[in-house]
Amino acid sequence: MRCKSVFWAVFWLLVSFTGIIYAAEIKADSRIAEVTVYPDSAIITRFASVNLESGDHRVVFPDIIPDVDENSLRVSARGASEVKLFGAQVKKEFLEDVPSERIKQINDEVRKLEDEKSGIEDAKAVLSEEKQFLDSISLFADTQIPEDLVTRMPQVSELEGLLAFLSVKLKDNFSAHSGHKFRIRDINEKIDILRRQLAEISGPGKKLKREIVVDLTALSPVTVNINVSYMVRGASWRPIYEARASFDTQELELISNGIVRQNTGEDWQDVEMSLSTARLTASGNMPYVGSWLLRPRQPMARKGQRSINLASNMAVEAPALQYEAFDGNELSEKSDESVEAEFVYTQPREKGTAVAYKLPKKVSVKADGSDHKLPISTQMLSAGFEYSAYPRSMPCAYLGSRATNAPDLQLLGGRVNIFLEGDFTGASSIPAIGPGEEFDLYLGADESVKVKREQIEKKVDETIIGAISSSTRRVVFKYKLTVENYKSKKIKVKLFEAMPVSEDDRIKVKIQQVSLEPQEKDWKDRKGIWLWELELEPKAKIEITYSYLIEHPKDMPVEGL
Which residues of 55-92 are buried (b: 16+ CB within 10 A; e: fewer)? Predict the structure, then answer.
């Protein structure tokens, strides 16, 4: 009898110390608390608070919808007393339930996007035909008007009307074509995301169920705040900017926004969000530095012969990416005595080289692939404004600004919507700009500054004396450049012109008369490109005339004349 009592005492003692072995799983009621979006993926952080007795436990985060990159899985925990973590893993289970309704929905969305893309492609084709027509008019004007000058002088209204027509139509055509191109790119990205989802759920008649399992030990009863983080596909972001320029105050307000879209299968509701420039799918290794060897060309291997790929033999496998997870400090109230969980296994932290933008407030993003425009930053910059014009190509003066980026802000390259004095004037772009770096930004054409290029004379000489024909053709051209300032303030204008440059010794070019010498010839080592840097008072006008002689063999057609 005494032995039996000792046996049961030992049994219950063992059970009390080995509760972990027989403890039931704890289903965590988790929510998405933080998201870091990358250009081609996202890191999701889920938060849950669970009450634990002392001992070992298994906490389960059920119903993980998107495909999880298991190499990126990370867990952290914090409680009022010591907690030890023993790792986390993704558990998968196949179910026979086929989500046919979701498959039909995705197919319908893909079909709708493809129909929209087809319509845009048709519109682009129409724009291309319109561009060809406008180019033909421009070509006709370049050839016919100079010929007409020999026999008759076209009316000024005719020339101005033609130039204005071409200017407006070409700008509208370019703007519409660019808009269609950006829209087609967005549609292709949405279709790719939907097709990846379709491939995942319409497999061999089975549905994949995922859950994340966390093993830990509490040394005493405690409420533990647990965060699990993992990388998913189907999410992306890109920058877009708004530049609001004021010519009067010489200021430029640059507003940075992020266009976020996601189709991961679950909505992000009221989450802390950061936008990162890193690409998690790109290798972090520097390419192999190999010698540059020159050798005789080897004959190509015949079919069936084995060839050696040196590059594949030298490839280095990239290490799995790991990162520091969100610690949940802002998501739950806890005492100052809370203790960070101790890891039983090693977890190296990421040493990032990218830039992350932390959004100032919580946001919500639906998993429908639509664009969500989220504000990142705004800065008011002092800017110097000046105009640039190349009337040979387009009779417009383009307002540009030079500004200096904030010392603590990295800007990615992207599209910029331009607003001048409150009015939308078009779109531009900027490259990647570092903190404190100076950059130039074109703000569109300004109709208050008129620029014009006119051919005012053309003389052809093919004779020596009387009716004696010469083997050489001599042509004298004379042009006039005009810049007019109709603004109420003094302006600076950089005026560019291309002078003819011969690439053949038989073609002789001689600049004869220039009414105003340019500040720079062969601008930036571009042969024949002249630059005038002009300053115009309000209502002022500057005219520059120049002429040049071109001499070449009579029987030699010259390209470019």
Answer: bbbebbbeebebbbbeebbbbbbbbbbebebbebebee
Residues in contact with 140: Cβ distance below 8 Å, sequence separation at least 6, in sequence order: none
Q: Of 285, 275, 276, 274, which Cα lies nearest the Cα of 320?
A: 285
> Per the structure block, which two tokens stand in for 115?
């129909």
CB-based contacts of 123: which residues, under 8 Å, 6+ apart?
A: 176, 180
CB-CB contact of 222 with 84 (8 Å)? no
Location of structure tokens 């705040």: 225
Helix H, strand E, coil C: the string for 174-231 is HHHHHHHHHHHHHHHHHHHHHHHHHHHHCCCCCEEEEEEEEEEEECCCEEEEEEEEEE
Please give the model's pTM, rounded to 2 decimal places: 0.57
Tens of pLDDT, residues 447-468:
889 999 999 999 988 766 666 6
Distance separating alpha carbons of residues 87 and 180, to the nearest angstrom: 49
Tokens standing for residue 9? 């005492």
Give the bridge partners for 273, in sequence order: 35
What residues have CB less than 8 Å from 350, skipping those under 6 apart? 321, 322, 323, 324
CB 213 within 8 A of CB 88: yes
Query: Could you give the angle at which helices 156-201 and 100-151 cross, rounded to 10 degrees?
Result: 160
